Amino acid sequence: MAEYIPPLYQETLANGLNLLGVEYSRVPWVSLTFMVKRGAECDPPDKAGVADWTAEFLTLGTARRSQRQLAEDVEALGARLKARAGWDATYISLEGLAEDFTALMTLLAEVVQTPRFPEEEFPLLRERRRAELAQVLDDPRELATRYFQRLFFQGAPYGHAVRGEPESLEAITLVDLVAHYGREYTPEAATLVVVGMVPREQVVQEAGRTWGGWRGGGPASPTYTAAPSRTCPPGLYLLDRPELAQSEIRLGHLGVPRQHSDFFPLRLVNYILGEGGFSSRLMLRIRSELGLTYGIRSRFHFRRAPGPFTVATFTPAENTGRVVREIQAVMQEVKENGVTLQELTEAQSYYVGHFPLSLETPWALARQIATIDLHELGWDYLCRYCEQIKGVTLGAAAQAAKAHLQPEALVTLVVGPAAKISQDLGELAPVIQVGEI
Asked: Which intervals hold domain Peptidase M16 C-terminal (predicted)?
């Protein structure tokens, strides 16, 4: 596999900006990604969404171009400009034809380095976010996912939605966005990734010309790497939604950071437990054998600091208690007994077989490189990936399951009709009713 991975090159510009690139010769395309290594975890406690709102505002005009001019110039190049915050990082990307590389690099540098922050656009942004949030909170699945996140993290940096919360709609101001930009967007905490049909020498030269003189702001916020000082106590929590005919169920506990040495065995264990579609243990038990749901998934959210492990599903209200019991039972089985050789082999085959898909476009490869840089995985990570997957033994998988699955310490949130499910749930554990967001 390693022979199919183009070599990665790295340069550090005079201002401290990290430049990473790959000469990608399969298509005449180029993908540029600016990554600042701070994201929604840096949002002020009462102003969730600042990082993501700031990223969007960068696409609404520069010192030289109005929003309309910027949009027209991007369209004229047949390019795509995107901006979003995630956990631990924010990404501004621009991609287009390789023959337009110089224009694209100049444009991205302008967007990042000289945003306009047009005051007249802020009320419109707020209205867009308000409409989006109203739609999200009207969806029981989205509501349950958001509510679990807030409940579980109890105000810690990962305890809110990246795109914002109801109370932050009115709390965030344009001043907050400008302040966030001025603090976090600094070359010392950023990386520029260039993947495409452009020679290394040209990339380095253009990066120096367009980015080398940028000083940015700072100092950036300290990186968030520690586990939260407290999370929600394990227990059974119920958000009453009497109008629903089915329950949304979210269970979880604290997981591990991306740099943890058990990443590869845990990824395989979780595929077997609940991420492997119809072949996963949870799907086989709760859908195929018992017919209690149409879908169920488990996931370790690997981030710079420990993220959550979660299980998400839904079921008719009358089955709620049974589904919760079965999830705990399946987790306990995997924790105590590990997985089978056949399951492990199939999980390894899946990840090795799908690995080339993560490298088949310049954009996909750029995202892989950005992740490698963000989590300091080593420049040879892509070359080592398949061997590390194939090198996981049954013993390592069993050890990871025993060490990191905690079915006895789950925070369980049920969003559903209390009148129909409280008695059933009460047979599992005391039920703690919680209020609306």
From this structure: 172-349
